[in-house]
From TrEMBL:
It is found in: Cell membrane. Residues 32-43 have a biased composition (Gly residues). It comes from the Bacteria. It holds the Pfam family CarboxypepD_reg. It is a multi-pass membrane protein. This is ABC transporter permease subunit. Keywords: Cell membrane, Membrane, Transmembrane, Transmembrane helix, Transport. GO terms for cellular component: plasma membrane. The keyword Glycosyltransferase does not apply. Residues 1-10 have a biased composition (Low complexity). InterPro entries: MetI-like, MetI-like_sf, UgpAE/MalFG_permease. Residues 107-462 form the ABC transmembrane type-1 domain.
Amino acid sequence: MSAPAGPAAGRTDDTGDAGGGAGAPETAAAGGPPGQGGRAGSGRGPFGPPPWVAWMFLLPALLLLGALVLYPTIFTAGRSLFDAAGRFTGLGNYVEMFTNSATFTAVRNNAIWVVLAPAIVVLLGLIFAVLTERIRWAYAFKLLLFMPMAISFLASGVIFRLVYEQSPDKGVANAVLTTIRDTFAGGSQYPGARPRTTPQTPVAQQGGAVVTKQPVTAGQPVLVPLVGLRPDQIPPSAAAPKAPPGGPGLSGTVWSDFTRGGGGTVNQMDPTEKGLPGVAVEAVRGGGVVATTETADDGTFTFRDLPPGSYTVRLAAENFTAPYGGVSWLGPSLITPAIILAYVWVWAGFAMVLIGAGLATLPRDVLEAARADGATEFQVFRKITVPLLMPVLVVVVVTMVINVLKVFDLVFIIAPGSVQPQANVLALEMWRVSFGGGNDQGLGSALAVFLFLLVLPAMIFNIRRFRREQR
């Protein structure tokens, strides 16, 4: 009974061995590793449709990328080898570029941008991100700081061109500065006024002040008529001028020797003219100021209790100095820092949002442990928060470096034409040479290639860092 079963079993084992030995490789070849399904020749990938389906979806984007990025890059590199007329010059454009003073100015300004702009943006973004964690209405504050990112660089340039206007009546920056300065230092009441010499009291203008040419003594009236004043410069409280009161002291009158509509007598106090109140008058003797006083509403002044002797009467220069007009933001010396401030205004909110997102992921137990160990808030910030945020800070810094190397809009809009050579950067120089009057696309292409080579290391650094983080 068992003997027949043996061969049958043996045959079964042989069949099983055959199926297990020959069939298993066939199954593996057809379906691949267990759990990955599929038939040989089906064209399906291990996890879904075949790769060519993905390429079909990527093809439109690749064509667009090639048309808008790859082809212009190759064409620009080739065009940089030809002159403005299209003749082949080899590296002639590059030689001309590096022997041109405008290029050196642009490179210098770009270096200033790379050093200052990213550092200021990251520092302000870090400070704002840390401080907004400790205040109420943090989201409203972040929204206000991020709002400039919603404005185009063109609009931002127009805004700051108005902010930096020289006239305090138009420019916000100078309006603030002049207001602060006038609050603490005061302003001149009669800027631009000049004296008219009288036979009685010859006067002259020296160093901005009005002084008597000859010493005067008590009882001798000092008459100082002034001209060159606009009607709106005369205070409303001004009254008709009067003759000096006389007496034992040293006295005189200061008035505006001008009659509106004509008429009047030169060097004479006419009823239609106005005395000048508030004029600072000094009595000078031996090179030093002995006494000071101010004119009344009718222009009269009196020095009482002066020691006997002769004095030089001087109307202080502060009465006539031109009003403080603020800072020349758009001048050659400040134009680059002024544009960098505009750039910081636009990008500080962007840096704050990115750094704030990184700050939200920090392990709070580490910060609390440091505080429990007695670390001050500044020590926690410097030794824990900043090192843990370093990857985020590097992202922001590299992004800012790439952006400032390509900056164009703000410089072109804010800088007036007269100071654009001083504010020049590589992107602006490239546009100016190619399209802004130079009409030399060969040299402009060489500048574009040079700018691309400057940006390339930062891009490679970013790509490598992203890959390193993905691993």
